[in-house]
TrEMBL record, chain A:
The organism of origin for this protein: Nocardioides humilatus
Protein name: ABC transporter ATP-binding protein
Domain of life: Bacteria
Key word Nucleotide-binding present: yes
Keywords tagged on the record: ATP-binding, Cell membrane, Membrane, Nucleotide-binding, Translocase, Transport
Location of the ABC transporter domain: 14-242
From TrEMBL, chain B:
Sorted UniProt keywords: Cell membrane, Membrane, Transmembrane, Transmembrane helix, Transport
InterPro entries, per database record: Bact_Polyamine_Transport, MetI-like, MetI-like_sf
Top-level taxon: Bacteria
Keyword Membrane: yes
Signal peptide: none
Protein's UniProt name: ABC transporter permease
Topological category with respect to the lipid bilayer: Multi-pass membrane protein
Amino acid sequence: MSSPAEAGSSYDGLRIRALNKSFASFHAVKELDLDVPRGSFFALLGPSGCGKTTTLRMVAGLEAPTSGTITLAGQDITDKKPYQRPVNTVFQNYALFPHLDIFENVAFGLRRRKVSGVEAKVKDMLELVELEAQARKKPAQLSGGQQQRVALARALINEPEVLLLDEPLGALDLKLRRAMQIEIKRIQTEVGLTFIHVTHDQEEAMTMADTVAVMNAGVIEQMGTPSELYENPASTFVANFLGQSNLIEGTVQSSGSDVVTVDMHGIGVTIPAHRAHTDGGKGWIGIRPEKVLIGAAGAELDAPGNTIPGGVVSDVSFFGVSTQYLVKMPWGQELMVFAQNTGRDPIFRTGESVELSWRPEYAFLLDHAQDVKAGAEEAS
Amino acid sequence: MRWVREHVIALIGGAVLVYLFVPIFLVVLMSFNDPATRNVYRFDGFTLDNWLHPCADPAMCDSLALSIEIGLLATLVATVIGTLAAFALVRWDFAGRSQSNLLIFLPMAAPEIVMGSSLLTLFVQGGFAGQLGFVTIFIAHVMFCLSFVVVTVRSRLAGMNDTLEQAASDLYATPQQTFWRVTFPLVLPGILGAALLSFSLSFDDFIITNLNSGSEVTFPMYVWGVARVGLPMQVNVVGTLMLVISLVIVLTGEVNSRRRARALV
């Protein structure tokens, strides 16, 4: 999954090579390669137990790798102690020192490094997170959102090469979480430091990060910008974990340099070659529910692709802005369709016959050897 | 009748409080007693004499000094050893840890009279026969205080989140700095509590001390000895003083934490 040159010492971001971590009987991280460019907002996304937190803790130095190397700004930090690394962490439960006030919590790292001008720096940092008024309070006196901001300030003030965020918003309620997502993104843009954000929340990863690495069972499944991952998932896990996907069985008939033609239960569909992630034989044809067009049987659908007839609406959920259908296809599978309520089309009722269609450039093709349900349960 | 039914909880509560406080009140009252006869268990008249001359019987003040001395020494040693043991038991994964955790309870569970007599056997067999005294009392007190210290500090440590130490380490604190800046301040209330408990256990002990004291006389032993001929009123002065000191300690703690809480709101 790593791309740039193996120059190692000249790379100024975080570089992980062949990283492994085994606990007694559990291989948590497997041969992990990763490059995080300096100044980027990077998200490690995956279900619980996928190894993302273990990876983060190895970067922080709180967990020793079984094998592999971690270099940061050209320096090998694999065997450095946590307090010797230019890395700071925002912990999941904040881990604020309960016996110190907010000011001293934020000043902790500066004082340990004997940096001068602590007073002014802490003031500036508290201003950045809008907590100037709380400087002399103890952590227990603050709300969850405020404690979260203290934890952020306490790490940021040290201007680390990499700031690690371990599910930092997990304990907050939905509304506060949204506000903090925007807040953290704003701060990252303002300070320009490298952020690595570990989360199981796909929406959080997609709204905040410029690059997302989807992790599953100790390996990185796919890495890219949020839109790349969403629009062109390379595995069934990514297709199901990031949003929802219809995955339909098909057999590759011909592979050209531009398009791959696949037989889908008797209907020929085409898929752009760069969106086909399998070599031949059988495959899973993937299409996002909102990319599927729905129309009455025999109606003209606004899509240059094939029309797939014979669908019967089996379930309708009206959401106001959109309607979500389940459509039973002739081969027995139920497909999801999200239709915008533009007012142009009628809302279909359960039992009505419909036709489906999609633009070929939105479809993708996945390896048939992968579990068609991978990632569907973990995504919530 | 209806009034009684409606206030029955308050009445019972009041009765329990009276039951708890009558002996304490008596101690304070008797410290001002001016006994007319040898019957020292009757309040005959008010005087400040007992307070003005607390050491009227020098033997009492000697025993008091001995008890305080042993109490402080035993507390210091038991607290240091016990705290170190508690850290080992909570933070170190060594062979025999769970057994040690269990065994540490044994001295607390064993009857004092058994511990006392077995210690005596030990000292006599160990060649201390003619030298029972300060050192043997001190050794015995450290022994029975130790378990209480370990248990008290251990519960405080076990309740402490070790991510705080990870956070300190992440924020450039060396292991030594992490201990003194984060771990120790957070465990300190537990250590202080253990020390207070140790002192009162040591100061109060009669059974074990009596068996291992040789010719030394601690304060509880003095009181036991003179009780047969009539207590000097100064014993009540000491009792009252101890009561006042503990009240002051508790109240200061309370006031401090309230003031801190108020300053933070």
